[in-house]
Amino acid sequence: MLKRFLLILSGFLIFANCSGSKKETMPAAAQKKDDPGYVSGLAKMGNLAVDPFSQMTFTFEGNPPPDEIREILDSVLTKYGMELTDSNRVLAGKTLTSLRKEQGHSEIAILQTMQTAPTNDEKLEDAARRVSTGMSQ
């Protein structure tokens, strides 16, 4: 009788332990998926992957806000006769970032100088290099 009681008691304890809250037994990674902050973070990562202005915010010196970048970059692209497409924006952003790494001037400073500098019928990339080099002298 005692053996039967102990067997039933141990079975009950095992059952009670297994039927606990699923949230408590879920791995930490699975619990994060229910967190609104996790979902928001995933949305931001997705936006970063497709939005050139979000990408530039993270790569440009000083992390300027996307709206500031859009305003000045689009004005420069228009000045150089380029269509306002994401591919042109990405190309310009990469050019500006490489110039910053080479010559030390922030991307925004180069763009601001390009707004007032003559175009000299150059491509945007050539003009950005000329302007950045001129800023060093």
Give me the secondary-structure topology.
Blueprint: H1 2-18, H2 22-25, H3 28-32, H4 36-50, H5 52-59, H6 66-79, H7 86-103, H8 107-116, H9 124-136
Helix pairs in contact: 4-5, 5-6, 5-7, 6-8, 7-9, 8-9
Q: How many individual β-strands? A: 0
Specify the structural class: mainly alpha
- Major beta-sheet overview: none
Q: Helix coverage percent of residues?
A: over 70%
- Rg is 28 Å
Q: What order do the SSEs take from the amino end to the carboxyl end, as H and E? A: HHHHHHHHH
Mean pLDDT across the residues is 80
Number of discrete domains: 1
Which residues form runs of ≥5 with pLDDT under 50?
none
Give the number of helices: 9
Shape: elongated
Percentage of residues in DSSP E strands:
under 5%
Can you walk through the features of this model?
This protein is mainly alpha-helical and 137 residues long. It has one domain. It contains nine helices and no strands. 17% of the residues are buried.
Which structural traits does this protein have?
single chain, 137 residues, mainly alpha, elongated
What does this entry show, briefly?
This protein has about 140 residues and is mostly helical. The chain contains nine helices and no strands.
